[in-house]
Amino acid sequence: MNKEQPPGDESTVVLEPVVQWTAEHEKILIEWADKAICYKWLHEKSHMVYSHRNTWFTIPVIIMSTLTGTANFAQDRIPAEYVNAYTIGVGAVNILAGILTTIQQFLKISEYNESHRVSSISWGKFYRNIKVELAKSPSERVPALQLLKISKDEYDRLIETSHAIDPKIIKKFKDTFSGGELKYTADGKLLPMNNQQTVFSLLKIPEDCDIIESTVNSLYKAPVVETKITIPTPPPSVPVNTNKFMETVKKMEERKKHQLKIQEFIEKFKIDKVREPTLDEIIDNLNNEISEEMITSIFNSDENIKLTIDENV
């Protein structure tokens, strides 16, 4: 039997509540993992660029330092009439090597090269850790709140320690993975996307890639629970207006189809424009398929549709 803790005892341990895994927890981790794999690619390419620059600064300095060091030993064998010119030449090469070394240190090429290399490895490790956890069954995972806290701390640390990405690398990232610009019809409707564009639209891109997403997209939304429509069976003695009943059912089915079409348009619009469409934008794009009254009714409705039958019919 557990004993009660005496009042005023400061050794009381507060246990974290056991929270079951939900789709919202997974959504947060998926977003972090998507951004992590993007950062891994960006820092890896940045490391390659700075490594190339570091090579072009280092190798000439090595060559010039070796030549001037060797030339100092051979100075005694130079004819007297060429000694002054020889000394000036060796000194000039030494000065040039010193200038290159100073420029390399000022631009911090070696520092950035190593920093991007470490960041690429760290982001890749962060991505793999989340990927492994999400691949497990929820019952086998680390507790949701614990994993979120660990991942958030690591994500913040990596953001703070990682150097900025060159705009040329960001442009290369977009050109490589975006699948090209989205195309529209003459009336402004989005044409079907290819496979690469579809995958890129589902990917959560880091803010460093000149993409800003509204915080409203991170707002918690309660899961929509589909409710089955139950139709009460009238007593045998009460006549049923079959035609009116079928007409009501038909309207319900038609309204449901319109709801799905509007929801599909909203999702495509959010992917393309990175925001929620307004009512006017929905009407302008769907007025050829759905009446304005129906769009307005569905857009402003927050309650589940219920089908009722008047027993007095």
TrEMBL record:
<keyword id="KW-1133">Transmembrane helix</keyword>
<feature type="transmembrane region" description="Helical">
    <location>
        <begin position="55"/>
        <end position="74"/>
    </location>
</feature>
<feature type="transmembrane region" description="Helical">
    <location>
        <begin position="86"/>
        <end position="107"/>
    </location>
</feature>
<protein>
    <recommendedName>
        <fullName>SMODS and SLOG-associating 2TM effector domain-containing protein</fullName>
    </recommendedName>
</protein>
<keyword id="KW-0812">Transmembrane</keyword>
<keyword id="KW-0472">Membrane</keyword>
